[in-house]
Amino acid sequence: MKIMPNRMDRGFYKYQDEFEKKALEVLRSGWYVLGKEVSSFEEEFAAYTGAKYCAGVGNGLDALWLAFRVLGIGEGDEVIVQANTYIASVMGITINGATPVFVEPDEYYGIDADRIEEKITQRTKAILIVHLYGQATPMDKIMEICGKYNLRLVEDCAQSHGACYKGKMTGTFGDIGCFSFYPSKNLGAFGDGGAIITDDEQIVKDIRMYRNYGSEKRYYNKVVGANSRLDEIQAGLLRVRLSHMEELTKEKEQIAVRYMKQLKSPYFSLPKLLEGATHVWHQFVLYSPYRDELIDYLNKQNIGTIIHYPVPPHLSEAYEYLGFHKGDFPITEDYAKSVVSIPMYNGMTKEEQETVIQALNEFVPGEHK
Q1: Fewest C-beta in 10 Å: which of 245, 268, 275, 330?
Q2: Percent of the chain, pLDDT > 90?
Q3: What is the pLDDT of residue 218?
Q4: What's the Cα-to-Cα distance from 267 to each of 289, 333, 362, 365, rounded to whole Å?
Q5: Which structural domain, as residue segments, surrounds residue 249?
Q6: Is position 291 within any domain?
Q7: Mean of the pLDDT values across residues 298-327?
């Protein structure tokens, strides 16, 4: 039995009839871009998150760079962001010509709020919070800092659909919440897709203009925009999955509870859970100083894994021009060489879970080469 780190087909088969009915409905409608499915999804997703407005876009990266674009953040400006995030978070900043200012993460893999203030300069215009792996970041101190220094706040919620901090959903703390609906996400489409949420009517108007070639009225272009539109089929299919989000989230929580209770080893550490925050388990991430050996061992057991992420943005070739070197962010770099995501997906069978648990509990470094 081969156990993959993620299985997106299981999520399809679970609601196959509903997905196929909706796809045919959209195909037969004759309207495929910016129609009633997109507007309906925007209303439903805003209501789900507790935001006033939602605008669908082409993908999560577009949500990020468009967010900073409409906030007027660009050349000469700085944006604070955690160093251990996926590179798309950083690209959302640099596509606009702004400079990322990296901060080390805490023990929960989110930004260390106690390290933010020391990085603020006269050029700092915003903080980008990434709710990594599905656990909500503690927002109290971050909100306080934003108020103190008059900073804009953008949230990268690509991995935290439905996660809350003190009862408030991620994406609703800042000026703009950015979401990805890539197929592997907790709320995944069947292709690329993304959205922003906001309580600011002007922001949502600006996003809708930018996503459609900078046009509010066809052929009348106010700005140099983008072609970044959530299409009708994806929006329709997302509406189906959104209607089952509570059930899907609970299923992942149950798998995580089982892992947390039954995985016992001195050779890896389990995720740490933050008081006041919920975790929707986009990934179940282990920390191990024997990470590479553990991955090889699991591969031999036909258990797949993924590393999120092996190369921190500050050490990537894409950002060599920023001038960082190994050792500049030791906590981030330690995570990059020590974390591994084990199988976690909707539709994962109890037999598959048991196989993963048994294999991990039997791992002993040096004994499986």
Answers
A1: 275
A2: 97
A3: 87
A4: 7, 19, 10, 8
A5: 245-361
A6: yes
A7: 98
